[in-house]
């Protein structure tokens, strides 16, 4: 599968795409509204930031407790139910007089549930498109996610001004409900990918199994750490260029969309695995320039170039799936998603701490250097191997039959 026309002609992909896009839009709109509401109530920039990005940190809780359900629940029912839960939780946050601690308690629950959604969603994508079409489909979802975030922040800002933060939260809840309806009536009934009852014990057991294989562990680290550290750099756009932070974010989104489009659509499969390390370095090296405090045009160019490197996640996910048994695909993709979001929160915290003691420009360069070092350390394990086609489902190399 090599064209977008083929992709959208695939049965179930269009409703799947709409469900994912609606949920990204709902989360963006409601996150902005909740951050505004918390700031108005407390005057705390820290609490406001946590209200917007706290769910990313809560992903680690779901990764440790819920992920075994990603392959043990029927995908359509799971996505529909999760969308309804997210819609209900968002509506509760709009309740008049809701204490700040209660809003954060709901937020923690929604973030934990969201970790399960990633595993179910991307496991289903693998079923709908098969392994051959997964990368193109995921690149389209990445592009849609970036576009929905840009549109969500823009529309959310207008809604907060016209409807109030509570009214915007209710609009976000309505988008979640629409996503649930699209999932319920647009997706087909499919059985769960694995048997057995989900449990915390099984989640831990499968996490250990996935982590125990060296090749797979290297891929997880490559998906989590360089990405998270660079998101830390992005979290400093506002203090680095207060009047032009919006431009840097918009240019970063453009670079990410361009990288995903080129990698997912035009790079042949035989080249993609060779580009894992170069794309990870592309993501990190341009940010070293910020040690020199570049002027805005040069900073914009560095951001566009660097964010194209986020496309490294596409061949890395492709490799992760090749190293993972089919019945654990959803769990592995959910672990990737949860770990990535958690590391993004950690990266933002690290960046803020370094910037507090030095400067935003210095902190961006420090985190970029750390990301380069991690990528180079992981590079030997990411090189394509001639034995890759014979990898067993447990992620270890197997001998070719004699």
Kindly describe this structure.
This protein is mainly α and about 400 residues long. The protein has 15 helices and no strands. The chain has helices spanning about 5-10, 15-40, 45-65, 75-95, 100-185, 200-210, 215-235, 235-240, 245-265, 270, 275-285, 295-305, 315-320, 330-355, 360-380.
List the helices and strands and how they pair.
Elements: H1 4-9, H2 13-42, H3 45-65, H4 75-93, H5 100-186, H6 200-212, H7 214-234, H8 237-240, H9 245-265, H10 269-272, H11 276-284, H12 296-307, H13 313-322, H14 329-357, H15 360-382
Short description:
It is built from 15 helices and no strands. The chain has 402 residues and is mainly alpha-helical. Helix 2 packs antiparallel against helix 5 (100-186).
* Helix residue percentage: over 70%
Averaged pLDDT: 87
Q: What gyration radius follows from the Cα positions, in whole Å?
A: 21 Å
How many separate helices?
15
Order of helices and strands: HHHHHHHHHHHHHHH
**What is the terminal-to-terminal distance?**
33 Å
* Weakly predicted, low-confidence segments: 387-393, 395-402
Overall shape: it is globular
The counted number of beta strands is 0
Largest sheet descriptor: none
Helix-strand makeup class: mainly alpha
Strand content: under 5%
């Amino acid at each position: 599968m090599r064209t977008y026309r083929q992709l959208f002609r695939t049965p179930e992909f269009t409703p799947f795409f709409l469900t994912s896009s609606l949920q990204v839009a709902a989360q963006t709109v409601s996150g902005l509204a909740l951050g505004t509401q918390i700031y108005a109530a407390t005057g705390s920039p820290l609490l406001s930031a946590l209200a917007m990005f706290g769910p990313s940190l809560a992903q680690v809780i779901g990764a440790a407790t819920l992920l075994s359900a990603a392959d043990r629940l029927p995908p359509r029912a799971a996505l529909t139910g999760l969308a309804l839960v997210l819609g209900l939780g968002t509506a509760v946050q709009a309740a008049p007089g809701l204490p700040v601690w209660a809003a954060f308690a709901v937020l923690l629950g929604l973030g934990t549930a969201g970790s399960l959604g990633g595993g179910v969603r991307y496991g289903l994508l693998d079923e709908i498109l098969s392994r051959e079409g997964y990368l193109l489909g995921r690149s389209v979802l990445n592009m849609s996610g970036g576009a929905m975030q840009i549109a969500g922040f823009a529309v959310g800002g207008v809604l907060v001004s016209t409807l109030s933060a509570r009214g915007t939260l209710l609009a976000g809840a309505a988008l979640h409900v629409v996503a649930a309806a699209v999932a319920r009536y647009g997706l087909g009934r499919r059985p769960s990918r694995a048997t057995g009852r989900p449990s915390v014990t099984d989640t831990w057991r499968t996490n250990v199994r996935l982590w125990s294989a060296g090749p797979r562990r290297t891929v997880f680290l490559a998906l989590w750490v360089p990405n998270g550290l660079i998101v830390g750099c992005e979290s400093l756009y506002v203090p680095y260029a207060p009047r032009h932070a919006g431009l840097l974010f918009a240019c970063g989104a453009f670079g990410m969309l361009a990288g995903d489009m080129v990698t997912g659509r035009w790079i042949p499969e035989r080249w993609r695995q060779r580009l894992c390390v170069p794309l990870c370095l592309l993501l990190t090296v341009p940010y070293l320039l910020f040690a020199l405090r570049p002027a805005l045009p040069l900073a914009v160019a560095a951001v566009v170039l660097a964010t194209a490197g986020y496309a490294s996640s596409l061949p890395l996910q492709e490799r992760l799936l090749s190293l993972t048994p089919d019945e654990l695909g959803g769990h592995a993709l959910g672990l990737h998603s949860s770990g990535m979001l958690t590391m993004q929160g950690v990266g933002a915290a690290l960046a803020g701490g370094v910037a507090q003691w030095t400067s935003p420009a210095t902190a961006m360069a420090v985190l970029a250097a750390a990301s380069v070092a991690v990528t180079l350390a992981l590079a030997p394990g990411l090189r394509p191997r001639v034995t890759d086609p014979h990898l067993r489902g447990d992620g270890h190399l197997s001998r070719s039959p004699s």
